[in-house]
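[step 3/7] fold_predict: job queued, chain A
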Amino acid sequence: MTILFILIATGWKSQIAPDLGPRMLKVWMGVCLLAMTNVPLWWTPAPEYLHAALHVSVWLLLLTSIATYKGSEEWSYVGYLILCALMIAIIWGFIRKIYSYDPVFYWIDPSWDAPLLAGIFCGAFTSQFKHQCGMLIWGAVLGETFNAVLQTGAYTAQIGSLSWWDSFWIALAAARLFSLLVKGIKLAISKLNGMFLQSKGGRSS
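[step 4/7] structure written:
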C-alpha cells in the first residue's frame, strides 16, 4: 500500500490507474489508510456455520467497488463482470481449500498461488483497472468466504487482515501486469504488421 501511495504521488497514476477518477481514487486511498492503521473493527456474520470476520475497511471497499461498474456500456457487460467475479471467487476458494489438505504440489508458493491465478484470470477478463479492482475485491472476499464454508469449523477467514491485504495486492498486481503484457503483445504485433505491409507496398511499387 505504501508503494502504491508513492507511485501515485510521483505521477504514475496514468500508468497504474488511468480510468479511476479522482474522487474514487481518494476513497480508495482513505480505505487503504484505514487498513494500514489496523484498527480492530471487525464484523462477524450471524450464521454459525460461516466462520468469517470482515474488517470495516473491506466493507467500505465493497461498497465503493459497486461504483466501478457505473457507466458500463450495457447491463449484459455488467452481468459478464459479475460472472467473472464469481469465477475468480471459486478459483480462489478452491485453491485455498486444496492447499489446506497438503500444500506440497504448488506452483510458486502456497500463499501466492490463489491470488496469482485469480489476478491472471482477472487480467484476461478485462483490461480496465476499475473493473479489475471491483472484480478482485468481490472475488477475494467471496473466495475467502467460500473457503471458510468448505472448511467449516477448521478455518476462520479474517477478511481484512494484513495477510489478506497481501493476497489482494498480489492479485491486483498480477492482473495489471498480465493486461499490460497482453497490450504490449498486441501493440508489437500491430507494429510488425504495419512494417510488413509497408515493406510489401514498397516492393510492389
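[step 5/7] annotate
Helices lie at 2-9, 13-16, 22-37, 56-66, 75-101, 113-125, 129-150, 162-204.
The radius of gyration is 20 Å.
exit 0
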